[in-house]
Specification:
Distance between the termini of chain B: 18 Å
Shape of chain B: globular
CATH architecture of chain A: 2-Layer Sandwich
Order of helices and strands of chain A: HHEEHEEEEHE
CATH class of chain B: Mainly Alpha
Structural class of chain A: alpha/beta
Structural class of chain B: mainly alpha
Number of domains of chain A: 1
Strand content of chain A: 25-35%
Largest interface: A-B, 25 and 30 residues
CATH superfamily of chain B: Cytochrome-c3 Hydrogenase, chain B
Number of strands of chain A: 7
CATH topology of chain B: Cytochrome-c3 Hydrogenase, chain B
Shape of chain A: globular
Strand order of the largest sheet of chain B: 3-4-5
Strand order of the largest sheet of chain A: 1-2-5-4-3
Helix content of chain A: 10-25%
Number of helices of chain B: 14
Radius of gyration of chain A: 16 Å
Strand content of chain B: 5-15%
Oligomer: heterodimer
Number of strands of chain B: 5
Order of helices and strands of chain B: HHHEEHHHHHHHHEEEHHH
Number of helices of chain A: 4
CATH class of chain A: Alpha Beta
Radius of gyration of chain B: 21 Å
Distance between the termini of chain A: 48 Å
C-alpha cells in the first residue's frame, strides 16, 4: 500500500514514474491543482474547465476504461460539489481518481460523454441527484426521478422528507 | 453476498484492518456460491425467455440447494448479511462444509445436463448466434463489465487482475470468447460456473483454521462470553452498538467482480461513525447503455435475447 502522500509536490516526487502523471505534466501542466496518494489510490484534483482534455489525454495514455462518475456534496463548504471520476487501465492494472471541484452557484462542468459514451447515464444521475449540469451532454434529463420532481435529493440541504 | 463483501472491504480499507485468513477464505467460498446462484437464475430465466422452459425448473432445483446453504449460514435465504466490517458475523455452522461439498460434487453433472438441453439445441442456437453482437471497442466505450466484456474478447477479471480477499491464492481460468454475441455470453457464463465450482473446491480443501474476526475491539463486536465476564468487552459492546465505530476521514473506491461485472463502492468518510457519502457502481446500470448498440438492425424478438444475455437486474438500475 505504501506511505500516504498528501500533497501535489509529494505525489509528483514519489510517483514520478507514473505514466498518468508524466502525460498530464507534458500535456496540461496547469490542469492538476492538487494530488493525493492514500490507501493505495491516486487522486488528482483537476481544474473543472480542463476535465475533458485531461480525460482525453488519460485515455490515450492507456487508462482506457471509465468505471464511474459520481459527486460528493461538501455543503456548507465551498467549492461545494466534488465531481469524482474513477478511471481504470486494463493494461497497467491501475486505477486513477479525478476530482473536479465545482462552486455552488449554477454548478456545471464539461461533459466527458465525447470521450467515454459510458459517462452518459452517470452524468444524468449526478444531474438528477445533485443538480450539477454537464455542458455538452447529449440529453441531460433526470434518470432516477420523475421529470417534474422538485430539487435534487442527495444535496445535503435537501429536507429529509422532501419539499412539501 | 457480493454487495455485503464490497462494502466491508471498502470500510476495512479505510480502517486499514487486517482480516484473518479464515474469514477471507469463507468470503471467497460464499462469493463463488453467490456467483453460481446468480448464474443459475440467469440461465433458467434466459432460456425461458428464448422459449426453453424446462431448464428453468432444473436450475431452480439447484438454486434451492444454495439458498438452503445461505439460510444455514446467515438465517436468510436472500438479501443475506453475514460479512461484517472486520470479518464474519459468526463462525460457520457445524457440518456446513459437508453440505457444500456434496452440492459442488454433483453440480458439474447438472451443468452437463443443462448443456445437453441447450448447447446442441438448434432452436436455441439459432436464436443466440450472431445476435446482439458487441465489439470489444464498443464494450469498453459503454462501460460493459463482467461476462459480456469477456465475451467480447477482453481478458479482464478483477478477481485475477486486482485480487481482493485472498483471491490471488486460488487457481482458476478466466473464460473469454471473441465472438461478442449472445451465444458467446452464454458460453462464457457456463464456463465460469465450472470455474466457480473449482474455486469452491479449493476453498473447502484449503480452508485455514483460526479466528474469524479481526483483532480490533473498537470495531468488531466482542464475543458474547467475553462480554459477560470482562468489563472492557462490555464497554466496547455498548459503544459500538450505541454510537457505531469511527472511521478515519478519507475516501476509497473498492471494486469486486460480482456475477454481473464490476461492482464498486466509493465510500467517503468525514471521520465520524456515519459515512459522508456512499456511492455504488453497479454493473447492470452501465451495461444497459450498450443495449441500443446491440439491438440496432435486429428484430424486436432479439431484444429479449439480448436483455437476457446481459443478465439484467433492475434493482441495480432503478435504485
Amino acid at each position: 500500500m505504501g506511505e500516504a502522500l498528501l500533497n501535489k509536490e509529494a505525489v509528483y516526487a514519489g510517483l514520478a514514474q507514473n505514466v498518468a502523471i508524466q502525460a498530464l505534466c507534458a500535456a496540461h501542466p496547469d490542469a492538476v491543482t492538487n494530488a493525493k496518494f492514500d490507501h493505495g489510490e491516486l487522486t488528482l484534483v483537476i481544474a473543472p474547465d480542463a476535465i475533458r482534455g485531461v480525460c482525453r489525454t488519460l485515455q490515450r495514455t492507456g487508462y482506457n476504461f471509465l468505471e464511474d462518475v459520481t459527486c460528493v456534496d461538501w455543503y456548507p463548504g465551498e467549492p461545494r460539489f466534488q465531481v469524482t471520476y474513477h478511471i481504470l487501465s486494463h493494461q497497467l492494472k491501475e486505477r486513477i481518481r479525478l476530482q473536479a471541484m465545482v462552486a455552488s452557484i449554477d454548478p456545471s462542468v464539461d461533459s466527458i460523454v465525447p470521450v467515454w459514451p459510458s459517462a452518459n447515464f452517470y452524468e444524468r444521475e449526478v444531474w438528477d441527484l445533485f443538480g450539477v449540469r454537464f455542458n455538452g451532454h447529449p440529453g441531460l434529463r433526470r434518470i432516477m426521478l420523475p421529470e417534474e420532481w422538485d430539487g435534487h435529493p442527495l444535496r445535503k440541504d435537501y429536507p429529509v422528507e422532501g419539499y412539501r | 453476498m457480493t454487495n455485503n463483501l464490497c462494502y466491508c472491504l471498502a470500510v476495512e480499507k479505510l480502517l486499514q484492518l487486517e482480516i484473518p485468513e479464515r474469514a477471507q477464505w469463507v468470503r471467497v467460498l460464499l462469493n463463488e456460491l453467490t456467483r453460481l446462484n446468480s448464474h443459475l437464475i440467469w440461465l433458467g430465466t434466459h432460456a425461458m425467455d428464448i422459449g426453453a422452459l424446462t431448464v428453468f425448473l432444473y436450475t431452480f432445483r439447484e438454486r434451492e440447494d444454495i439458498l438452503r446453504i445461505f439460510e444455514q449460514i446467515s438465517g436468510q435465504r436472500m438479501m443475506t448479511s453475514y460479512f461484517r466490517v472486520g470479518g464474519l458475523a459468526l463462525d460457520l455452522p457445524l457440518g456446513l462444509f459437508d453440505t457444500v461439498q456434496s452440492f459442488i460434487k454433483v453440480l458439474p453433472e447438472k451443468i452437463d445436463e443443462y448443456e445437453n438441453l441447450l448447447t446442441g439445441n438448434p432452436i436455441f442456437m439459432n436464436r443466440l448466434k450472431n445476435v446482439g453482437t458487441l465489439s470489444a471497442a464498443d464494450a469498453i466505450a459503454f462501460g460493459v463489465t463482467g461476462p459480456p466484456l469477456r465475451a467480447s474478447g477482453i481478458d479482464w477479471d478483477l478477481r485475477r487482475d486486482m485480487p481482493y480477499s485472498s483471491y490471488e491464492k486460488f487457481k482458476f481460468e478466466v473464460p473469454i470468447s471473441s465472438d461478442g454475441d449472445v451465444w458467446a455470453r452464454y458460453v462464457v457464463r457456463l464456463r465460469e460456473m465450472r470455474e466457480s465450482v473449482k474455486i469452491c473446491q479449493q476453498a473447502l480443501d484449503g480452508m485455514p483454521e483460526g479466528p474469524i474476526k479481526a483483532d480490533a475491539p473498537h470495531v468488531v463486536l466482542p464475543d458474547r462470553e467475553k462480554m459477560k465476564t470482562q468489563m472492557e468487552a462490555l464497554i466496547y459492546h455498548f459503544k459500538i452498538v450505541t454510537e457505531g465505530f469511527q472511521v478515519p476521514a478519507g475516501e476509497v473506491y473498492q471494486a469486486v467482480e460480482s456475477p454481473r461485472g464490476e461492482m464498486g463502492y466509493y465510500v467517503v468518510s468525514d471521520g465520524t461513525a456515519k459515512p459522508w457519502r456512499v456511492h455504488m457502481r453497479n454493473p447492470s446500470f452501465a451495461t444497459l447503455q450498450a443495449l441500443e448498440t446491440m439491438c440496432v438492425g435486429r428484430l424486436i424478438a432479439d431484444v429479449v435475447a439480448v436483455i437476457g444475455s446481459i443478465d439484467i437486474v433492475l434493482g441495480e438500475i432503478d435504485r
